[in-house]
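User: Could you check the structure of this?
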Amino acid sequence: MRIELKDFQSRAVSTLSSKLESMRRRYEQDGETSSICLASPTGSGKTVMCAATIEALFFGGDDLGLSPDENAVVLWLSDSPSLNEQTCVRFANVADKLADSVLDHRHLETVTNHFGASHDVLDPRHVYFLSKDLLSRNGLLTKGGELNSGRVFWDILDRTIKDPERNLYLFIDEAHRGLGSNASSDKGTSTIYANLIDGFEGRAAMPIVVGVSATPQRFDAAMDLRENRVRMPRVSVTPREVQESGLLKDIIELRVPEKDDPVEHQYLTMACQRFALACSKWDEYCTEQDERSIHPLLLVQTADNISMSSLAELCDQIMSLVPGLNEAACFANVFGEHKLLAAGKYLIPYIDPEFVQDSPNVRVLFAKEAVSNGWDCPRAEVIFSQRRRSDSTYIAQLVGRMVRTPLARRIDGDDMLNSVACYLPQFNPDSTKDVVDYLMGRKDAMGESSIGAKNIVLRPVTVTTAEPRTDKDYEDELERYEANQEAIREAEGQQPGFQPSVAGMGEQSSFEDALVPIRDKEPKDDSDQTGNESPSATDGGTSAIPKPNDSTINPIAPAQLSKPKPPTKQEQSFTKEEWAGIKKAFGSIPVQRVPKKARNEFQSLLRTASLLVETGLDRDAARDVNHRFSRRLAGSIVSNEDEYLAARHEVEVSETVKITLDKLNETETSSQEEAMTDPEGLRKAARDADVRFGKELAQAYRKENFVQLGRQECDLRLAAAVRTPAIVDDLERWAAKTRKDYFDTVDGSGSYDFLSDAAKQRYDELARETEGRRLTRIEWPTSLITSDLFAKYPRHIVQKEDGLCPLDLNDMEQAIVNTELAKARTIAFYRNPSGSMSAKAFSIPYMSSVGRKALHPDFIFFVRDEQGDIRPSLVDPHAEFLGDTLAKLKGYVNYLRDFPDVFKQVLFVGDMGNKEYRVINLLRNDVQEAILSYTEVDCKALFYGPYANTYQ
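Assistant: Sure, the predicted structure tokens are below.
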């Protein structure tokens, strides 16, 4: 190794290597497959430890007392090509026996789409870096084909595993991502991982699997569910060991606003000031200690849709506050677009994340999400993030990868050089709780405090639509098949040179015999069927072989049909009449897509005024609207003075909560700080008014008050007003009423009739734009990947061949399905994808406390009504009564009032505890009225009153 391992790293490498040797011997002796996990915190150097382990595996380790496995082959799996590239570069940099440099590929090789063209098996003492996407169903590696010389990667693995001269080890990087709850959103990923571990379609299972993760519970849970794989005890590194080694910075500082709606500009100012101080302190320290220069890095995490003009403003602000930066070379980006950005006068090139640390000219790095898995940059000192509080995962993961110390040791006497500072203007003290818990090790991953095996897809199986097929269909197919075979035989019999075999009393001749030319066969008889002597080949007789000028026509044989199989239970689950009814009922369900972005009253008013001016209906409308808005805003500031002054103070003064996490001493403290907003910050804060009120109205206010107030005061008042809900509400009501008054005036005057067709169209669109709603239908499901270990249910519209569909249901959901299927009227059902925005999911919009959301009823049952028609019914079980349950019920009612005749029944089932289920019928008018008039937060009482019954 080119670097000296820390004590905890050496212990982990030695333990893991010894266990791998033991696992290999047990596999060689009795075929025992096994797994083990290297469980080590983020920033502990997992890649370095793996490189050292693999180097010892290939070449032995005298210092660790390890013998080499000369037949060892390592397959390194990750879910990202860029992560593999980073790992390969890191291996080459730290392990001298694996590579002389990053250009040395003797032992390190990346699997590509044409890998099979040059590989029949995997070679010993090689690390093969594989991205899981290459093994997708339609991937070139899994198809073979000409590009891979016909070789399928699954077969290459199979041959390698079965070769006694090769010992294959599978290392899974970030193992929790492919086998844990994060895989639930991508069933394809979990299926690929499972196929590699368990063997694809009967091929050999992976002998030894090594999971590498900071969250080992997910990997271990996945291994425990495998019956024929022994899970070895983890090789664990504790956070305390890593912290005490000096590899990680001791202190993480988070600065967040005390209240919402901060002045974001001021937080970047504070971040730049902190960054400039860090640069000065590191320069001073490195000069005093004769250390290499650190070149600290400022990381700016932007919003996803940031414009080039906004990016240029960020660059301007940074350049004005941080001395010594070279504007031509100090900026770079790691955006997903992978391209050079032209932001005003700044050129911001793309840089691969793995090269940031060793590119000292890059001093400011722009990112959007968490850069990439496995990335770390010890010289990163300060983060400024525009991400919203809903993106806390990105923040936590990014900070977690920035905590390495630049010199791989603690700096005595200066806490700033042992810290990383984060400025998060879109967060608040409450919303940072998840981030703090993650960084302090109280959570294994963002958004979850305990890890289970619920979403692990083991023994994956694909279920398909239960299209009916009857015995009569089978008989017809068999008849067509036999006719096809007869036609093929007749066509073959008319081919030149064909001679049917008479050997074995009518037995068919072998396929090989059929390939032998007739003239090369010995005649079976000396005469033909007429008694005439058959001319021999030596006599020149060629009666059985057409001459070159023979006019014999060679008939074309029909295409070969596959022999039909009898109908499966899946194909007999439904009659054709039922299936047609199910599909019709499924297609009748409307999905209401309500626009997520609400209409802006101010923009609508401005568009209305513009139309009135352009059409001559009111030449002064635009000027009047601007003047009246300025007067209304001034009056609203006076009438809402208390709220306005509070908002004004928040704009003028950035009140910040500083949360300090001391990782070494395991303490957490908070304190308050204040910073005055500079004029540029006020100007940017006022942009929120430009967006909310419309730039034209905001500019009208500035122009009308500029002489009396000045630009800075105008910006301050606009910024404070737009942050005062009472003022915004008052102005919105004024804009809506003013707009309505304009329409009423036009409608009352009869002027509308004299507009051109184009003007009438614009007028009508403005008049009804709030009514726009888009209706769609649910996409018919064709297949679903699920686990064959789940409980299986009949009459689902997608099934296995045995007529059953495996579904992951809780106890209440199981009870619902069993109860409904037991009813004679139930024909079929569909498990609606939960929490999914897929086109195959049915959703109903509702208004929550944070805006429009969508609920997903759990089950659609297809039932036969009194007239014999098949209609959809909804049954939606709820195990808990949460804060948004009433909002969901009201969403149901609004939807059902728009579409009252679609469903046969709509049942909302509540779990009252002790398996007591109560149900309300949402199609009843009295139930709907009760829900709409209900005001209590806890709506459980609705299920105990006269509107509910026991579910049965």
